[in-house]
Write a structure and sequence with these properties.
Order of helices and strands: HEEHHHEHHEHHHH
Low-confidence stretches: none
Strand content: under 5%
Number of domains: 3
Largest sheet: 2 strands, antiparallel
Distance between the termini: 63 Å
Shape: extended
CATH architecture of the largest domain: Orthogonal Bundle
CATH class of the largest domain: Mainly Alpha
Mean pLDDT: 86
Helix content: 40-55%
């Protein structure tokens, strides 16, 4: 509390205070307001921490983020384990979209790590995930496949528009889209976007 309020700390074993200039970022999946009301969380600490609140929707509500999250997590896991970088196919992304993700991004990371351990493929495929994920419900799979296709079509439209605006210059189109040129080439191939400008 003193650190948050007075911006100073007293190191263990010391008798002098040191000024600090820090910003605290705290995250939780618990409802702190209810916990404060129930006396389960210190009200003074809550009000010191609660300056700006950012609410992140659960992973199941932002399926369109699965491709970028999966790519980032795979790269992180491969670097952490000291193994060659592995990719993920569009079919595998569709398979991920068929799950509700009650454990959010942590669960996604665990699934990808398990899939990497059991797969010999350079690029994770849907069948690599089948062995490490629960079977999708038919309704959930159908709904998420529709969402995945809507997202894919939106990506196709955005890429096509960027290519038209830059007269087919892929380096400029990638800048317009805010992605790397390599990512643009991959998306053109995976999504079946025509790289020629009409």
């Amino acid at each position: 509390m003193r650190t948050l309020q007075e911006r100073e700390v007293e190191p263990v074993g010391s008798n002098r205070l040191i000024s600090v200039d820090v910003r605290i970022i705290a995250a939780t999946s618990r409802n702190l307001e209810k916990m404060v009301s129930a006396g389960e969380f210190r009200a003074d600490l809550y009000y010191r921490l609660n300056v700006i609140t950012l609410k992140t929707p659960p992973l199941r509500a932002r399926v369109e983020d699965l491709p970028i999250l999966a790519e980032y997590l795979l790269e992180h896991i491969c670097r952490q384990q000291g193994v060659p970088l592995r990719g993920i196919s569009a079919g595998a992304i569709d398979r991920l979209a068929c799950h509700d993700w009650p454990g959010n991004v942590r669960e996604l990371a665990n699934v990808l790590e398990r899939a990497l351990l059991v797969s010999d493929n350079d690029c994770l495929q849907a069948e690599d995930l089948d062995g490490v994920m629960p079977a999708p419900s038919v309704v959930a799979a159908s709904n998420r496949m529709e969402i995945a296709e809507v997202v894919a079509q939106a990506e196709r439209d955005a890429i096509a528009a960027a290519l038209r605006a830059t007269r087919g210059n892929k380096a400029q189109a990638a800048k317009v889209l805010g992605i790397s040129r390599a990512a643009l080439y991959e998306k053109i191939a995976v999504l079946g976007v025509s790289a020629t400008v009409a």
